[in-house]
Each structure stands twice: as C-alpha cells, then as structure tokens.
Design goal:
Shape: elongated
Largest sheet: none
Low-confidence stretches: 1-8
Number of helices: 7
Biased composition (Basic and acidic residues): 161-175
Organism: Streptomyces violaceoruber
Region (Disordered): 158-190
Number of domains: 1
Distance between the termini: 54 Å
Keywords: Membrane, Transmembrane, Transmembrane helix
Transmembrane segments: 12-33, 69-86, 98-117, 129-147
C-alpha cells in the first residue's frame, strides 16, 4: 500500500491517499454495476415496503436467497473500511466513527437507489438500502476498530492527532508564567 514511516506525517498521508484512491475506484465500480441500463424482458415493480424483498428472496430457496441477500450486503461493504481509511484518523471515538460511516453508507446507497429511478431495467428497492447499509456497518465493525488499535500500538511517527502529543506540545510551548502575548505585524524595537 506504500506505507512509509517518517517523522513528518507522510504515513498518514499515504493511508489517506490509498483510502481515497480505493474509495474512488470502488464507487466507480458500484456506479457501473448499479446505474447501467439493463436489457431485460420484464421488470418487477419498485419495492417501497421494508423487508418485503428479503421475504421474497427467502421464498426462492436458500441458495438463491443467499446469493441475492449476500450480494446486496457485499455491494457497499468495502465502504465500511474505505471511508474511515480515507479520513485518515487513528484516534477517534469508535461510536462516532461507526455513526459517520453508517450515515455515509446509507446516503450513498440512497443516492444509488434514487439514480436507478431513471435507468431502464433497474428497479428501486428499499431492502437494497437496508442491506447495503448493514453491509457497511458490519465491515466497519469487523475491521476498523482492530486496525486502528493495531496502528495505535505501533506508535507511528508523524501522527499528529495523538492525544498525548497535543498535551506535550502545549506544555512544552508554554512558559511557567504563561505565553507572551504577541501582536501580528508589529516588529521588534531596534
């Protein structure tokens, strides 16, 4: 992935750059899969009743249900890892990160479903939104906390959002009597 350790923060930049690049590639692939016109002989009606599509998939048998439901779960699941990776933060509240990632995944899924309204052969399905968002949340829960904990234990140099780094910098920069007030644009006397 091109991760190098340096004292000037390049490690975090490499993680973010890789995350943004992979996120863009994944979204392009998802857009191509979900927003291209399909040549089909007939189209099912749009589904706006939650869980009705999942029940219909389960009625088709276990193999077909697993294929359809699993496909919907896996379609946007990489976003659960790629969105936090593109953010580049190692020290962040796990619940806040999960909430942000789930919300972003739900909004992207909603945008896809709304985009499908004008595409021939594609059908809007509320269950796709639910399953896509669930896939994002599951991927986030299974991967991100573990990876962040591992990166924190490694003590990467150049990571500037460390809580102890901010405190040490603040204590080192302050004089015992406090900092000297300065006015910008005013030079020193001769």
């Amino acid at each position: 992935m091109g991760v190098r350790h340096s004292s000037d923060g390049r490690t975090v930049i490499h993680f973010r750059a890789a995350g943004v690049s992979l996120l863009a590639a994944h979204l392009l692939l998802v857009g191509w899969l979900t927003l291209r016109p399909l040549d089909v002989p007939w189209i099912a009606a749009a589904n706006f009743e939650p869980l009705a599509g999942i029940r219909a998939d389960l009625a088709l048998g276990p193999v077909e249900a697993a294929r359809r439901i699993g496909g919907a779960l896996l379609l946007l699941a990489p976003l659960g890892v790629l969105l936090p990776m593109a953010g580049g933060r190692i020290f962040v509240s796990p619940w806040l990160s999960l909430l942000r990632t789930a919300a972003a995944g739900a909004l992207i899924s909603l945008a896809i479903e709304l985009g499908q309204t004008g595409v021939p052969g594609q059908v809007v399905d509320i269950d796709s939104l639910l399953l896509n968002t669930t896939g994002v949340v599951l991927a986030h829960l299974l991967v991100v906390p573990f990876c962040r904990a591992r990166l924190r234990r490694r003590g990467l140099p150049g990571v500037r959002d460390l809580p102890h780094h901010r405190q040490e910098t603040r204590l080192r920069d302050e004089a015992p009597g406090g900092t000297t007030p300065t006015i910008t644009g005013v030079g020193l006397a001769p």
